[in-house]
Design brief:
The complex is a heterodimer of chains A (879) and B (112). Chain A has 879 residues and is of the alpha+beta class. Chain A folds into 5 domains: 69 residues, no CATH class; 190 residues, no CATH class; 179 residues, no CATH class; 175 residues, no CATH class; 194 residues, no CATH class. Chain A is built from 28 helices and 22 strands. Chain B has a single domain, classed as Winged helix-like DNA-binding domain superfamily/Winged helix DNA-binding domain (Arc Repressor Mutant, subunit A, Orthogonal Bundle). In chain B, helix 1 packs across helix 2 and helix 1 packs across helix 4. Classes of the chains: A alpha+beta (879), B alpha+beta (112). At the A-B interface, helix 1, helix 2 and helix 4 of A face helix 2, helix 3 and strand 3 of B.
Chain lengths: 879, 112
């Protein structure tokens, strides 16, 4: 059939009534003409009419044939079947509700999960031409990437030709005071072309221009749309306002358009103006983004950067010889392997849930089909072909699928609304989880797929049963083969749910392992927060040191506070600063992590000093520089430099500067060794760490650990007050108990555990329902048999155990199949587990026992029902 | 839905209709049916009604055009005529018909 005809046919479908009328006319006039001719040939009017009709053929047949030619008969039947199906579903409202809710659950979970996949992996990033946005890294060695130094960045920007814009950023945070209460917000210091890279414009005012990041430029900031709304009430005159950022007045020059940045942590941006000490080539600290010129491919840009790298190598031999510059697409940066893996596993799990839901629906349809055999037999007797009956049954399951799909979309909507706030922390900020057109098409597709999957087998089975036998009234309606199929379906369900339950338990076990990981610090009753030292008010190291002391003392006096420690990094978190130790006589540098702590830090966290002493308040600026090292470094020193007893030894350590001072290489005495606190991520060895006193190496970014005598959160009002007393511009940010910090830090790999756990619960529930359905049906069908058995002396217990044995055998076969599935999926799960074998016997045993128990529970009700069969009543019914 | 059996060899009714319209110009459905019966004499047993579905299909294919007109009994009926595409189609159909019958004829001769 060509397209033209297809369109004509579809159009004809819409004009059905009009065309039917035309047809009536046509046939009527045909008959009239034929009659007239016959009369003209001399026949009587009656004979003429008869002859006319005879030679026309069966009038209704002609009409039907005519209609078939005119339009797509198939669609017409389909609509009729759908209407019929709808009516019969309405009659069986309980059945319909059961099927639709099972489908809605399965489809809803899948649609919600797919919307996450869509947001994270499928949707283009929410910036104009996102493919052109790249991250540019230093790669000191193949396979290693590093941040960029300011001079390198400036050289790249000057020399690179493949980029329309290039910018460097550094995350900052600051206390913003413009609306009464000071608030601590995350922000970014960025160079002028930042917003060109992301092609984001201002709704009010402007973004940065080339002058804004030059030395001596006015202090200005740009606000995100969300920050403007949340913290400034969407004030339309915002551009006239100045805000105090870390004690310094800033002009607000622009508010961004609403968009992706509103989901980011970053609330404000200020120009990044390089100071002289930041312009050292050895300090790598910048994140560099670029926007490729249109037409320049990633590979071309990367090639050109290699040329620049070679040129810079000539200029400044400090760059690593074997290094290079690598260019990554932004998407690669935002969606890490961990996240991709978690999402795929969760998607796999939710598809299994849908399979179980389909199996359940198929089961219900089979059960319903058994009760409809007579109806179908009658229809077959009246001339319906087998294909016609299959089509009818399939159409009905499609109607169910569509209803389930519609309900599923509603379920997905609710799930997304509930889950997004919890998920958003684990997803990149660019991901907006929503029910868009693509997600809705997906919902439609799986609704159709599910109804086909669930409907095909029952439709075929039901229409293939011996219809002649079905019309026989004495037929019991119990077909052995049908029961077998239904049992197979339940066995499959048990197998699939076992896989899910095992997965969830393994992940849970892995999570528990992570949570019980030795952190090396005291976790209970410790609250953490961050704040920034207003550098403007404390411009020298001496002043800064006084500030640290004052804050610690004042905080300790707050009600409930036992001990206070300050550091640049919280425990369990990776130490970003890396420095080098040079030991006299040793030709090479020992690379270490560099952490600043105040005298209270080790005490607050219960980190024991194993040799020498900790940091004290005597370690001030101007006296002998000291440091405490961790056991990992002590071992390394013994290994590399043969330094058996490092306490008291003096080494040279590179120190980063404070405010204007450039970094230098002073002599530092090792005064003590502490037991290593956890710094590396789970599974990695402790790195070598030096702890230097804050007073000797000041830094404005402060993390507090506060131990209290009671519930950690309860001390916060006092802490807030204490901070304000020290400096009215100070306010705490990132408040979290150390417990929460631990959970957050160590749970990343096991993140999908709750999700998979939820899926597994749903799967088990659906399986239990399926098992219940099959057994109930069996009991109903075997009433007579059971009645006879009881009449012949079987005890209630025998009947009960017979049904339960039946259930148990289905469950056990399912478990065996499920175990095969678990073995097959070992590799997939392994990547998500921490120190747990994917075939961990404990998890597998618990999963099997739990599945069996739930299955038996589901079988218990029908079994009790069977045991209560009254033989007299049953046998009398059969009369 | 049972298939309407036509005594006209399958697929040739279209050809007959097109040929009739080429020979006679514009006609209504009944006249076409009558004409086919008359021309074929007693050989073809045509259910006259089967002409109508064919006409619909041919019209949808764009081979014949439909206009409204008044029949001899003063009713509004459809009058059909051949379109340019219909003429082309008729040549193609006649050609392939002749090829097919020629082939069958040769085959029958050869097999004797």
């Amino acid at each position: 059939m060509n397209i033209r005809r297809a369109i004509e046919r579809l159009l004809a479908l819409l004009r059905k009534r009009e065309l039917d009328c035309e047809l009536e006319n046509e046939i009527a006039s045909h008959l009239e003409l034929a009659e007239r001719d016959a009369i003209a040939r001399g026949l009587s009017p009656e004979a003429a009419r008869r002859l006319a009709r005879l030679s026309l053929g069966g009038i209704e047949q002609v009409k039907e044939e005519h209609r078939a030619q005119r339009s797509t008969q198939l669609i017409g039947t389909l609509l009729r079947d759908a209407r019929y199906g709808m009516a019969s579903l309405l009659r069986a409202s309980g059945f319909t509700a059961a099927v639709v809710s099972v489908l809605a659950l399965g489809i809803g979970a899948n649609v919600a999960m797919f919307s996450v996949v869509d947001a994270v992996l499928l949707k283009p990033l929410p910036f104009p031409e996102p493919d052109r946005i790249v991250r540019i890294w230093d790669a000191p060695k193949p396979g290693v990437v590093n941040a960029t130094s300011a001079p390198d960045f400036l050289d790249w920007k000057r020399l690179a030709t493949g980029f329309e814009a290039m910018s460097a950023e550094q995350p900052i945070s600051g206390t913003l005071d413009g609306n009464g209460e000071p608030i601590r917000l995350s922000g970014k210091a960025v160079t002028a072309e930042y917003f060109q890279v992301f092609a984001t414009n201002a709704q009010l005012g402007r973004t940065f221009t080339a002058e804004d990041d030059q030395p001596g430029a006015a202090s200005v900031i740009v606000l995100s749309h969300a920050a403007w709304q949340n913290y400034f009430g969407g004030d339309p005159k915002i551009l006239n306002r100045r805000v105090i950022l870390d004690g310094e007045s800033h002009q607000i020059i622009g508010v961004l358009l609403p968009g992706a940045f509103d989901r980011d942590q970053t609330k404000f941006w200020k120009p990044l103006i390089f100071t002289s000490d930041q312009k050292l080539r050895a300090i790598h600290w910048l994140t560099v983004y670029g926007r490729l010129r249109s037409g320049v491919s990633l590979a071309q840009a990367s090639d050109r950067m290699q040329v620049i790298h070679a040129a810079l190598l000539e200029l400044e031999p400090i760059n690593f010889r074997e290094g290079s510059i690598v260019v990554w697409p932004l998407a690669r940066l935002l969606v890490g392997d961990d996240l991709r893996r978690s999402i795929s596993v969760a998607l796999g799990a939710v598809v299994l849930v849908l399979l179980i839901a389909c199996a359940n629906v198929a089961n219900l349809l089979l059960a319903k089909g058994a009760t409809r055999k007579k109806e179908l037999a009658v229809r077959a007797a009246l001339g319906a072909s087998r294909g016609r009956l299959v089509r009818q049954l399939l159409t009905e399951s499609f109607v169910l699928g569509l209803l389930g799909g519609a309900a599923g979309i509603a379920v997905a909507y609710v799930l997304i609304r509930v889950a997004t706030p919890m998920l958003s922390k684990s997803l990149p900020f660019t991901a907006e989880v929503s029910l868009n057109l693509r997600v809705l098409s997906f919902a439609g597709a799986i609704a159709l797929g599910a109804s086909l999957l669930a409907g095909a087998l029952p439709a075929l089975r039901t229409s293939f049963v011996n219809l002649a036998a079905s019309s026989n009234l004495s037929d019991r309606g119990s077909s052995k083969a049908l029961a077998g199929v239904r049992q197979l379906i339940v066995i499959g369900e048990v197998a699939v749910s076992l896989v899910l339950v095992c997965g969830a338990l393994l992940l849970l076990e892995s999570l528990l392992k992570l949570q019980s990981l030795d952190t090396g610090v005291h976790i209970e009753n410790v609250i953490t927060m961050s704040t920034d030292l207003p550098v403007g008010a404390y411009p020298t190291p001496e002043k800064a040191a006084l500030f640290y002391q004052a804050v610690a003392q004042r905080l300790k006096a707050a009600p409930g506070v036992v001990q206070v420690g300050i550091s640049t990094q919280l425990p369990m978190q990776w130490i970003v600063n890396g420095e080098g130790i040079e030991i006299a006589g040793l030709g090479k540098t020992v690379w270490v992590r560099f952490k600043r702590v105040d005298p209270g830090y080790f005490d607050t966290l219960g980190i024991p000093v194993v040799a020498g002493r900790g940091i004290t308040s005597q370690d001030r600026d101007g006296v002998q520089r000291v440091m405490v090292i961790n056991q990992a470094l002590a071992a390394r020193l013994a290994d590399v430099a043969g330094m058996k007893d490092p306490v008291g030894k003096t080494v040279r350590v590179s120190y980063p500067g404070y405010v204007e001072k450039i970094d230098f290489l002073p002599e530092v005495q090792i005064v003590g060794i502490i037991r290593s606190e956890r710094v590396a991520s789970p599974g990695d060895a402790d790195p070598a760490v030096v702890y230097v006193p804050f007073a000797q190496a000041p830094d404005p970014h402060l993390r507090f650990v506060i131990r209290s005598s009671f519930e950690a959160a309860a001390v916060m009002p006092g802490v807030r007050e204490a901070l304000r007393e020290v400096d009215p511009n100070l306010s705490p940010g990132d408040v979290a108990t150390l417990e929460q910090v631990r959970t957050r830090t160590f749970s990343r790999a096991s993140q999908p555990v709750w999700l998979i756990g939820a899926f597994a619960s749903v799967a088990v529930l659906l399986t239990a329902i399926g098992l219940f359905g099959v057994l109930s049906q069996a009991v109903t069908q075997q009433r007579r048999e059971i009645g006879i058995r009881i009449a012949l002396g079987a005890r209630q217990f025998d009947v009960l155990s017979r049904i339960l044995r039946n259930a148990l055998s289905m469950i056990l076969i399912g478990l065996v199949l499920g175990m095969l599935g678990v073995f097959a999926l070992t590799r997939v799960v392994k990547s998500l587990l921490f120190e747990v074998s994917p075939l961990d016997p404990r998890a597998l045993t618990v999963a099997c026992v739990a599945t069996t128990l739930i299955g038996l529970l589901a079988g218990f009700l029908p079994a009790v029902h069977a045991a209560r069969v009254d033989p007299v009543a049953t046998l009398r019914d059969e009369g | 839905m049972s298939k309407q059996k036509t005594e006209v060899p399958y697929g040739t009714l279209d050809l007959l209709i097109l040929k009739t319209l080429e020979a006679m110009g514009t006609m209504h459905g009944y006249a076409i049916a009558r004409r086919i019966e008359q021309v074929s004499g007693d050989v073809l047993q045509l259910s006259q009604g089967s002409v109508h579905p064919s006409l619909i299909r041919l019209e949808q294919e764009g081979w014949i055009r439909r206009d409204w007109g008044i029949s001899e009994t003063n009713r509004k009926v459809k009058f059909y005529s051949l379109t340019r595409a219909g003429r082309r189609q008729l040549r193609v159909a006649v050609d392939s018909w002749e090829k097919a019958t020629g082939m069958v004829a040769r085959f029958l001769k050869a097999s004797i």
